[in-house]
């Protein structure tokens, strides 16, 4: 199931750098497990970044994104204290989200 | 939000393919609220087919797209890539790893308050060209960069 997720957002010269770490196996479906059978694909497909509840970035991802994905994004117009929400949805319908205040 | 949604739907191949995906039960209704996962583009097994699914077959080369990554990646399982478009009005960026089994690795749609920038870690199965496609003003632009991978090698 969905593990921990961490985000950090810092504003500098009007640009907010958002960094997020997600716990996820990102199985490609091409790897064999210890039983010799293919491990079914299990990967994040959608990533959404919101600023104070308003969507600013919508990402779509494949199994080619590395295990425990790390992303950096850049948002304009955010002020210190504004809320950044990040969520993901995977191919099994599992989801997770986190929120951080812009520092 | 609505404006962004509309653009996302358009980018994903319009309502028709969304409807088809819904009808086929491939997309849960709840998912339709988020950006639609472009099944055709992500399922394409060649960069050419993926680009066609993205509507980017006619992309032209651009020096205004930067791809920052090391030339040699010792561990193909985690290859950091930073991409940015300096093309005015860039609305989306797609990252393709041409020799991967499914070349399209990710696609990001940017609202007005986001810079067309993303940094992420990707898996690269073997040495490959990475192709980044940016969409601006209804046109597509691309840049490429070769990344050599030495999986399990001694890092030479």
Walkthrough of the structure:
The complex is a heterodimer of chains A (103) and B (156). Chain A has 103 residues and is an all-beta fold. Helix content of chain A is 0%, strand content 52%. In chain A, the strands form 2 sheets. Chain A has a 4-stranded antiparallel β-sheet, with no helix packed on it. A 3-stranded antiparallel β-sheet of chain A has the order 1-2-5, with no helix packed on it. In chain B, strands 1, 3, 5, 6, 8 and 9 form a 6-stranded mixed β-sheet that branches. A 3-stranded antiparallel β-sheet of chain B has the order 2-4-7, with no helix packed on it. In chain B, a hairpin with a 6-residue loop joins β5 (90-97) and β6 (104-110). Chain A binds chain B through residues 15, 28, 30, 45-46, 48-49, 51, 54-67, 69-78, 89, 93, and chain B through 1, 4, 8, 28, 30-31, 34-35, 37-38, 42, 77-79, 82, 97, 100-102, 104-111, 113-115, 117-124. β4 of chain A pairs antiparallel with β6 (104-110) of chain B.
Strand content of chain A: over 45%
Query: pLDDT average of chain B, as an integer?
Result: 83
Q: For this structure, what is the CATH class of chain A? A: Mainly Beta
> How does CATH name the architecture of the largest domain in chain B?
Sandwich
Q: What is the number of independent domains of chain B?
A: 2
What is the CATH third-level topology name of the largest domain in chain B? Immunoglobulin-like
The named CATH superfamily of the largest domain in chain B: SoxY domain
Number of helices of chain A: 0
Question: Biggest protein-protein interface?
Answer: A-B, 34 and 38 residues
Please tell me the overall pLDDT of chain A. Answer: 94
Outline of chain B: globular
Order of helices and strands of chain A: EEEEEEE
Helical percentage of chain A = under 10%
Total DSSP helices of chain B:
4
Distance between the termini of chain B: 48 Å
**Radius of gyration from the alpha-carbon trace of chain B, in angstroms:** 16 Å
Major sheet characteristics of chain B: 6 strands, mixed
Predict the CATH topology of chain A: Immunoglobulin-like
Listing every helix as H and every strand as E from the N terminus to the C terminus, the arrangement of chain B reads HHHHEEEEEEEEE
Number of strands of chain B: 9
């Amino acid at each position: 199931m969905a593990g921990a997720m961490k985000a950090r957002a810092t504003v500098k010269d009007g640009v907010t750098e958002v960094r997020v770490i997600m716990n996820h196996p990102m199985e490609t479906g091409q790897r064999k497990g210890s039983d010799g059978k293919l491990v079914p694909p299990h990967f994040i497909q959608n990533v959404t970044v919101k600023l104070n509840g308003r969507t600013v970035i919508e990402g779509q991802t494949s199994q080619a994104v590395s295990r425990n994905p790390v992303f950096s994004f850049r948002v304009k117009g955010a002020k210190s204290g504004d809320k950044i929400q990040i969520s993901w949805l995977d191919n099994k319908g599992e989801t997770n989200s986190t929120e951080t205040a812009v520092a | 939000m609505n404006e962004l949604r509309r653009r996302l739907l358009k980018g994903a191949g319009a309502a028709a393919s969304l409807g088809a995906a819904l009808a086929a039960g491939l997309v849960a209704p709840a998912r339709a609220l988020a950006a639609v996962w472009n099944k055709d583009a992500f399922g394409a097994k060649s960069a050419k087919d993926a680009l066609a699914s993205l509507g980017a077959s006619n992309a032209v080369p651009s020096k205004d797209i930067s791809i920052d990554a090391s030339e040699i990646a010792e561990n193909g399982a985690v290859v950091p890539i930073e991409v940015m478009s300096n093309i005015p009005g860039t609305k989306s960026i797609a990252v393709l790893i041409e020799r991967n089994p499914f070349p399209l690795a990710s696609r990001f749609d940017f609202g007005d308050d986001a810079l067309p920038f993303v940094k992420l870690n990707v898996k690269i199965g073997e040495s490959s060209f990475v192709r980044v496609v940016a969409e601006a003003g209804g046109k597509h632009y691309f840049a490429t960069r070769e990344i050599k991978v030495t999986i399990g090698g001694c890092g030479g």
